[in-house]
């Protein structure tokens, strides 16, 4: 009576372990081919990209594609960014273990998890309640205790936790929201895609120097739009 159950359970455990090993191998390959090969070299970023289980941040039906070289749909017309883009945006803010980082556009929570592997504390804001709730639950379940998710319009930032050492915006904005720049500490860095809605945007790196924005254009990118509360 118990033998078949035992055999079934053992088989399931084995199958899960084999699957996890395969994902681990896919992560190694993703880092080598998509990320290191394109110039991301910060060891902490590479380590984080190897560690975070991206397949748990995409819908189960497309888990097999989790480590492919592109953005993937996560529902409600939103996407999880391409792995390279996540790694690149993480590297340009020069992340370190003492930092407090604000992210706008939680989405699946993947970028927040990558940041949380490196920095001290991550605050992240998502405007679509279902995504925000699902991401918060996922991050909690995976043990990312240093991430706090808020549901709301990220345009206003998160005043009570400001100033931030860095701000990562993962939705394409038409211009830099002034409250976000205000909440960046002196010497802090913000990475943000800026450009017209539904067009190619420019990924910008903005540093706050003596209160002024020093901007560098990094590369053309396509992100889902930065929406405002009350908009569709
Ligand atoms: N960083 C995410 C990908 C984000 S896609 C990840 O790793 O999965 C962009 C996200 O920004 C979407 O979920 C979208 O709903 C959200 N968003 C758009 N405008 C926003 C705003 N004003 N405030 C907060 N989130 C916003």
From TrEMBL:
Membrane spanning residue stretches: none
Source taxon at top rank: Bacteria
Gene Ontology MF term list: protein-L-isoaspartate (D-aspartate) O-methyltransferase activity
Subcellular location, record wording: Cytoplasm
GO CC terms of this entry: cytoplasm
Catalytic activity: [protein]-L-isoaspartate + S-adenosyl-L-methionine = [protein]-L-isoaspartate alpha-methyl ester + S-adenosyl-L-homocysteine
GO biological process: methylation; protein repair
Entries under InterPro entries matching the protein: PCMT (IPR000682), SAM-dependent_MTases_sf (IPR029063)
Entry EC no(s): 2.1.1.77
UniProt-annotated catalytic positions: 81
UniProt keyword annotations, A-Z: Cytoplasm, Methyltransferase, S-adenosyl-L-methionine, Transferase
Function in brief: Catalyzes the methyl esterification of L-isoaspartyl residues in peptides and proteins that result from spontaneous decomposition of normal L-aspartyl and L-asparaginyl residues. It plays a role in the repair and/or degradation of damaged proteins.
Family statement: Belongs to the methyltransferase superfamily. L-isoaspartyl/D-aspartyl protein methyltransferase family.
Name of protein: Protein-L-isoaspartate O-methyltransferase
Organism: Pontibacter ramchanderi
Taxonomic lineage of the native organism: Bacteria, Pseudomonadati, Bacteroidota, Cytophagia, Cytophagales
